[in-house]
Design brief:
By secondary structure, the chain is an alpha/beta fold. It has helices at about 20-25, 40-50, 70-80, 105-120, 135-145, 160-165, 185-190, 220-230, 235-250; strands spanning about 1-5, 30-35, 55-60, 85-95, 125-130, 150, 170-175, 195-200. InterPro entries: DNase_TatD-rel_CS (IPR018228), Metal_Hydrolase (IPR032466), TatD-like (IPR001130), TatD/YcfH-like (IPR015991).
């Protein structure tokens, strides 16, 4: 039993076979999926997907790429969505200094406002962090007190992962852990405490081996779990059970 803690099934790359991809996930032991918003339109679509599928939950938020477009009414809409029973998190939110599609000062402002929204609504957060480790950690030490959440598709060092955990947050591992050159990520996957570890696909991105180069989908979270289990010297089933339990703990979902 696997839980894909981060996917984007609303992406247009699933328009031709979305229902089939959801069915393939179930056939591969993926019992639940969190569909994560990246802007207002995808957040709305995430809510719709969650309403249509018992096995899908939604997160709503504004990705740093689109922070420059954030308006006051959007914060109000995000807050309103958190009242929906299938909306379980604010995300994905954070900083992206790789593409810099929004000015960095605006990214920070919007990130902090959404962390405050998580505090006001009592929802966990889902963080996007690309090439912004220093600023992310500075903000989290200052603004993240009393909050809970996950650093999705973790790309930092083991030292950073330990700092993230000390702050009370979780680390999620995605497809790159299967790449031969992902030495640093493999170390993180091996050493992070099991009770703070999640697995994800970030579909349609970051497809694991042996399907690298093709569109990713939630069924492939089993490949991520298998590699993390191998690195830790565990059975895949035990790793799947532990990470699924962690998702349910973090996002306050009933245990099955």
């Amino acid at each position: 039993m696997l839980f894909d803690s981060h996917a984007h099934l609303d992406d247009k790359r699933f328009d031709s076979d979305r229902e089939a991809a959801i069915a393939r996930a179930a056939a591969n032991g993926v019992t639940h999926i969190i569909n994560v918003g990246a802007d207002m339109a995808s957040s709305a679509n995430s809510v719709l997907l969650a309403e249509r599928h018992e096995t899908i939950y939604a997160a709503v938020g504004m990705h740093p790429h689109d922070a420059k477009d954030m308006q006051e009414k959007d914060y109000e809409q995000l807050a309103a969505w958190t009242g929906h029973p299938k909306v379980i998190a604010i995300g994905e939110i954070g900083l992206d200094y790789y593409y810099d599609l929004s000015p960095r000062d605006i990214q920070k402002q919007v990130f902090i406002r959404q962390l405050d929204l998580a505090r006001q609504t009592g929802k966990p957060f889902i963080i996007h962090d690309r090439d912004a480790h220093g600023d992310i950690m500075e903000i989290m030490r200052r603004e993240g007190k009393g909050l809970t959440g996950v650093f999705h598709c973790f790309s930092g060092s083991l030292e950073m992962a330990r700092d993230v955990i000390k702050l009370g947050f979780y680390v999620s591992i995605a497809g790159p852990v299967t790449f031969a050159n992902s030495v640093k990520l493999k170390e993180v996957a091996r050493e992070v405490p099991l009770d703070r570890l999640l697995v994800e696909t970030d579909s349609p991105y970051l497809t694991p081996q042996p399907y690298r180069g093709r569109r990713n989908e939630p069924a492939h979270v089993r490949l991520v779990a298998a590699e993390v289990a191998r690195l830790r010297g565990m059975e895949t089933e035990a790793l799947a059970a532990a990470t699924t339990g962690n998702v349910r703990t973090l996002f306050r979902l009933a245990k099955e």
